[in-house]
Amino acid sequence: MTVYDLTTAGFIHNSPTLCIDSYKPNTERNADGSVDIHFTSRLPRGKENNWIYIAPRGEWTALFRFHGPKKAVFEKAWVLPDIEHA
């Protein structure tokens, strides 16, 4: 998952984190293998490995990419959940 600034269509300026990647060994997974991603301008304590910075007053969009997807993606049996406000 990567976040982009809607104004510039580029990465968010001065962002300390640009994306969460399933290949990163420090990405924290839930017991079922899913990953919770935290989109916020402030570093969430205890969730640093699953945090993507967003500017406090900026508009942004998230892009999800599949690299080596499994059969469930092609058969549309797996659906990416909506981003929820916590």
Describe the structure.
This protein is mainly β and 86 residues long. The protein has a single domain, classed as Jelly Rolls. It is 5% helix and 16% strand. The longest helix is centred in the C-terminal third of the chain and has 4 residues, at 71-74. The mean pLDDT is 90.
**Helical content class:** under 10%
**What characterizes the major β-sheet?**
2 strands, antiparallel
For the record, the count of structural domains works out to 1
Shape: globular
The beta-strand count equals 4
Give me the strand/helix succession. Answer: EEEEH
Structural class: mainly beta
Radius of gyration over alpha carbons? 14 Å
Distance between the termini: 18 Å
Q: Give me the CATH superfamily.
A: Domain of unknown function DUF1214, C-terminal domain
Question: What is the name of the CATH topology?
Answer: Jelly Rolls
CATH architecture: Sandwich
What would a concise description of this structure say?
This protein has one helix at residues 71-74; strands at residues 2-5, 38-40, 51-53, 60-63.
Task: Please supply descriptive tags for the structure shown above.
86 residues, mainly beta, Jelly Rolls, two-stranded antiparallel ribbon, two-stranded parallel ribbon, 1 helix, 4 strands, globular
Sequence-ordered SSE layout with sheet pairings:
Blueprint (H helix, E strand, L loop, with lengths): L1 E4 L32 E3 L10 E3 L6 E4 L7 H4 L12
Parallel strand pairs: 2-3
Antiparallel strand pairs: 1-4
